[in-house]
Design brief:
Layout lengths: L2 E7 L16 E2 L2 E2 H10 L5 E6 L3 H7 L6 E4 L6 H8 L8 E6 L7 H11 L4 E7 L8 E4 L5 E5 L6 H4 L3 E10 H8 L16 H7 L5 E4 L12 H21 L3 E2 L5 E9 L4 E2 L3 E9 L4 E2 L4 E3 L2 E2 L4 E2 L4 E3 L1 E3 L4 E2 L4 E2 L3 E3 L4 E4 L2 E7 L4 E4 L2 E7 L4 E2 L4 E3 L9 E3 L4 E2 L4 E3 L2 E3 L4 E2 L4 E2 L8 E2 L20
Parallel strand pairs: 1-4, 1-6, 4-5, 7-11, 12-14, 13-15, 14-16, 15-17, 15-18, 16-19, 17-20, 18-21, 19-22, 20-23, 21-24, 22-25, 23-26, 24-26, 25-27, 26-28, 27-29, 28-31, 29-32, 30-33, 31-34, 32-35, 33-36, 35-37
Antiparallel strand pairs: 2-3, 6-10, 7-10, 8-9
The chain binds uridine-diphosphate-N-acetylglucosamine (UD1) and calcium ion.
Amino acid sequence: MNLHVVILAAGRGTRMKSALPKVLHQIAGRPMLAHVIDTARKLAPQVLHIVHGHGTSELLAAFAGQELDWVHQEDQRGTGHAVAQALPLIPDAARVLILYGDVPCVREQTLATLLRAQETTDLAVLTTRLVDPQGYGRIVRGPQGFVDAIREERDASEVERSIDEVNTGLMVAQAGALRRWLGQIQPHNAQGELYLTDIVSLAAQEGVGVVAVPVADETEVRGVNDRLQLAGMERIWQTREAERLMRAGVTLADPARIDVRGDLHCETDVFIDVGCVFEGTVRLAQGVRVGPYCILRDCHVETGTEILSHCVLEGARIGEGARVGPYARLRPGSELGDATHIGNFVEVKKATLGEGTKVNHLSYVGDAEIGRGVNIGAGTITCNYDGANKHLTRIGDDVFVGSDTQLIAPVSIGNGATIGAGSTITRDVPEGALALSRVPQRLREDWVRPRKKDK
Ligand code: UD1
Ligand code: CA
């Protein structure tokens, strides 16, 4: 059946104490609402409706270009009122899944289970059991196990408050029935709001068997109301990621000290030391080792390569059996061949390095094409920028570049050429030649170092 998803995100989020709309606060480097949308999309809905109230321009900007139906809720008159705003665009024959923009960690499988439960009835609600159910709507079940009502904390009796099964807020309803029930709800409650939860007793009165689907892992359905809960949710997310990685054959030095803010794909026997952050899409092949305190964003690292501590790598591809770091920086467009070595305080940008090439210390390699088996000495700089344009440095195979060399681009160095240390190379160097541009050393054996004058 035609599925419509309605994500509630109109709440003010006062307790965040923030200029940013609550659902744009991030979990794992992405807005909470983005996670909910992602999970919802996996269920292949016909339309995804987002009910919003505050921070409209920020929300629209954050999700620009995405196919979403933005529904504005002028005044926040309650969850029932919020859902009603989306109904005009939903046909009676559809089914409606209601999600919360501030409940970011719910799993696709859990929602699939909820959807399956609703196939035999008009209304199914996702519930969970809490040691401390305070603040949540309680699930009041009838003798046959169907839900008779959801009672909000403020409206609950003493006996009802002792119920530990609570409403997560997530539910699935048959659209026609939902429309009928929402037309009947009244703001006759402690908060004077139109409660979505009141549709449950209306359904029960019609003889509908309202099914409660309990979710075992309550962390999935936790909401975020303040920054403490946001931080708590971040840890829940990261714990899940760490567990996923370890199950896939990755060794984590400490599963509590890794942050994955994107998609990290690892083959087996990858080792990741403490304090690493992964952003965007990162692929680590078999046996890759990542040292402590590295940041990798949109990188692809091949088999057996070792990234030593404190590296910042972005948009780089690194071949097999290479060694990078400690303290190396690879910027977008860095393509390092197999068995290359990049050492400490080396920056590489938009450069390809052939197999076995080494840049071991204190160098800048930008806008360069470097062959195989090249040795770039300490302190070498490709001077790629003339103040207006960037130029290319080409270095052939088996070139030896002495330390403290400046290569003034555009410039080409032929295969097998040697550049003497301390040179400033302004013209192309042919194959096999030696290029030297340093000032010859002078010696004065009779020279006497000046002394301080006696006073
Ligand atoms: C709601 C449920 C409660 C459940 C709890 C789970 C109702 C009446 N109660 O209570 O049973 O245990 O969630 O967290 O539904 N929202 C709007 N527009 C509104 C009001 C709310 O979009 O007019 C959105 C909020 O942004 C939020 C969600 O709906 O994402 C829930 O609203 P909230 O006011 O937090 O509901 P609770 O009182 O926590
Ligand atoms: Ca809430």
